[in-house]
Amino acid sequence: MRMVDVITKKRNGHALTKEEIYHFVEGYTKGSIPDYQASALLMAIFYQGMTEQETATLTQAMVDSGETIDLSSITGHKVDKHSTGGVGDKTTFIVGPLVASVGVPVAKMSGRGLGHTGGTLDKLESIKGFHIEMSEQQFVNQVNNVKLAVAGQTGNLAPADKKLYALRDVTATVDSIPLIAGSIMSKKLASGADSIVLDVKTGSGAFMKTLEESESLAKEMVNIGKNLGRNTVAIISDMNQPLGFEVGNANEVKEAVEVLRGEKISDLRSLSLELAAHMTVLAEVMTDYDQAYRALEENLDNGKAFEVFRSFVVAQGGDVEMIDHLDLLPSAKYQVEVKAETDGYVSAIDAESIGIAAMYLGAGRATKDDAINHGVGITLKKKIGDPVKVGETIVVLHSDEDSPTDSINRVKQAYSFTKENVDPKTLIYKVIK
User: Fold this and answer.
1) Where in this chain does the record put each Pyrimidine nucleoside phosphorylase C-terminal domain (predicted)?
2) Nearest-CA neighbor of 272 among 62, 83, 85, 136?
3) How far is CA 6 from CA 3, 57, 119, 364, in A?
4) Residue 45 belongs to some domain of the structure
5) Catalytic residue among 183, 214, 311, 407
6) Is 90 exceeded by the pLDDT of residue 235?
7) Number of domains in the chain
8) Dihedral sign from CA coordinates of 164, 215, 188, 55
9) What's the rounded Cα separation, in Å, for the pair 230 and 340?
10) Is residue 72 part of a domain?
11) Is 83 in the active site?
12) Confidence of residue 371 (pLDDT cuts 50, 70, 90)
């Protein structure tokens, strides 16, 4: 099979066969297909798209390019959750213990943050001693014992995706729905879960800025899951402002623990319960969404979910004293207040700019080799719809510098104000099954 014929076929708008897609993925992963031919095919896909079946085949080919994790020795129906990335998104720390508290095993592979989006693993490492590296057997044993484990992805999960993503990044082919969907789902499928709940973010702090784009991506991923034998549900949720009030690492862990202790942080609590309820139904522990939501809400309020989180931290070597006494978590030297310069109401917050401001403080990475400062971050004091007076604090920067000018300026640029009342943003737009 000649690669030039595969490129020509896709360039002309025809669907590729399973054999042609596997030829491409296997050849590029092993190095027999050069970058210039792979780039040409990616650009053809970018312009011509892929059918539902093509996208599913591409995803499976990327799964088959490396190792897969065998979770068959874990008792019960394994459900995973994946977020497409946002600012202040710490739902894993609430959703995992919640779902585990009703007996559903959660075996989660997570990643690190880059750019304006935070990473689950970086946040967990705010807890002294917490380790995210474990053998497959340790991972399986922990899920059987605690019902919850969160670990770093192994180096050889879907290696084709890693190589193709690097090429897409430098050939302006990242923004292709089939390629994005295949990239996300290949790693999820290789991680071994029986069912998957996707939190697809939409808005200023999300990869997909519009609801239409987010819905297209959500549908594509749900279709991939169905075509490859995994029940998949996607929730499209708002990322036009950070989720909750904390952005960073240790401070996000703190906020998640506060929700697990019963604090009513509205958007964070609501989205966590929504995701957890769908995971519980997919696991067939409960057949009715409303019943699942009520049971999970009860375990959030009675402390059962919090106890699961404590057990999870202990199992992965973390210092549970930091969870019981949140003031022991890493903190910054200075608390720098950013104040409103006008009266009115908060009309918009550019979530991406807030994420970048946190990155400037050291809470995130500009490049993959940057070190994380777990103690720095941002606390929002005002969110969309809140009234504001001149001189009132809108944001607190937790910084190791006494005057972090770049972050201050970025926060000021992120906030917009109006004299009129503003309705709060919709949190959950759609559920796609």
Assistant:
1) 345-418
2) 83
3) 5, 15, 37, 40
4) yes
5) 183
6) yes
7) 3
8) negative
9) 48
10) no
11) no
12) confident
pLDDT at residue 97 greater than cutoff 90:
yes
| Phi and psi, residue 35, nearest 5° | -55, -40
82 as an active site residue: the answer is yes
**pTM for this structure?**
0.93
Q: Provide mean pLDDT across the span 314-329.
A: 98
The answer for residues whose C-beta is within 8 angstroms of residue 251's C-beta and 6 or more apart is 329, 377, 378, 379, 398
Do 34 and 84 lie in one domain? The reply is no
Give yes or no for residue 410 having a pLDDT over 90.
yes
- Residue 168 is among the residues annotated as catalytic for this protein: yes
Measured between its terminal Cα atoms, the distance across the chain in Å is 38
Domain endpoint, select from 324, 339, 357? 324
Query: 23, 78, 82, 398: which one is catalytic?
Result: 82
Of the listed ranges 147-156, 185-194, 257-266, the one predicted with least confidence: 147-156
Do 383 and 312 lie in one domain? The reply is no
Tokens, residue 127: 């807890």
At residue 408, the pLDDT reads 98
* 112 tagged catalytic: no
Q: Which of 80, 122, 161, 350 is catalytic?
A: 161
Residue 84 and residue 44 in one domain = no
The 10 Å CB-count burial string (b at 16+, else e) for 314-334 is ebbebbbebbeebeebbbbee
Of residues 23, 116, 147, 187, which has the active-site annotation?
187
Cβ contacts of 57 within 8 Å, gap of 6 or more: 16, 18, 21, 22
Query: CA 302 to CA 332: how far, in whole Å?
Result: 32
Q: Where in the sequence is the domain holding 231, given as residue range(s)?
A: 79-324
Give the CA distances from residue 139 to residues 32, 63, 312, in Å, rounded to whole numbers and listed in that order: 35, 20, 12
**Left, alpha or beta for 158 (phi > 0: left; psi -120 to 50: alpha)?**
left
Does residue 58 lie within any of the structural domains?
no
Q: Which of 269, 302, 324 is the C-terminal boundary of a domain?
A: 324
Residue 278: active-site member: no
Q: 379 CB contacts (<8 Å, ≥6 apart)?
A: 245, 246, 247, 251, 395, 396, 398
CATH number reported for the structural domain that contains residue 40 in this entry: 1.20.970.10
